[in-house]
Amino acid sequence: MPSVAAASIQSVCAYLESQNYSLDEWRERHSLSRDDIMAPDGRFQLTVLHDVLDHAVAVTKNPSVGLLIGAVISTSSMGVIGHILFNNRTLGEALTQYVRLAALVNEGLAVELEVDDGEAIVSFDYIQPELYHAVNIDRMLVQTVARAKKYVSEQVYMTRVGFHHPEPESRAAYVDYFDCPLNFSEPRSYIAFEEKFLDFELPQRNPYLHQALSRQVESLLSRLRQRRSLSARVRHLVNGRLSQGEFDAEAIASELCVSRHTLYRRLKAEGNSFHDIIESARRDKAVAYLRKNKYALSEIAFLLGFSELSAFSRAFKRWTGQSPASYRRSNGSGAGRA
Asked: Which of its termini does the chain have fewer beta carbons within 10 Å around, N or C?
């Protein structure tokens, strides 16, 4: 499971507390203390961020609450990445660095910057489509625009904004925040603005602070890459065992030349677990098989190591909220194979 920086969760919690909404039940569910959440270099599984956003929707009864959360700009909640970005020389340099450091903010998102026909486009794309979370995208896009206006220039305006999710009933709320053409059900989410703004110099930049923070960030990035490398190797070994349905942590740890305890500890440190990797591998492979429409459901169950179709169906519904047959139909494969 991808991890996210604690700062993202901190901003959601800060908003809810400022509006006098309780986080006690949510913290108890995840066995998190206030100190856990406020850890400066803390990281959490992406699903923890998604869950606190779902909690925000539930308690506020507002499906567009991500817009409200993203609009709150606080220097204290930016985290080290935010501070280093806005101490670059220009907006273009800041965005280029953001693309390179994006995994430190959210490992589950791929961020790209491209320039086309006088327009700069910053896109946000979930690496694992099944993890897509509309409220988080709302939060991130509003936050990006709001920070550009505050830390770059009020003159910065968007030419268009796109969302991967379908158009919501509360479209008017989006218009208020972006004040530009909005597009929904796009291949990926993005903000776009005139290319000339890339050359805008950042008024609050501090070259010395940027240099000091760069050293800290490079250290964090190096640690993250090492952790991701271990997860990737575990995932590769798990993929090779899917059809067997037996995932022996001891055997995999032995292949990686570490003890089982060390394997668990290092995975936990990056906000991951052996169980999560198995679940993720099975889920991703199941989705791929269903979209290809090549195998019967019973065959897919066998290929993923499930002893019975019913066990696979229960697992898939837990992962996606849909039965395998329903998922296959909703993804354009017709009735599919039984």
From this structure: C
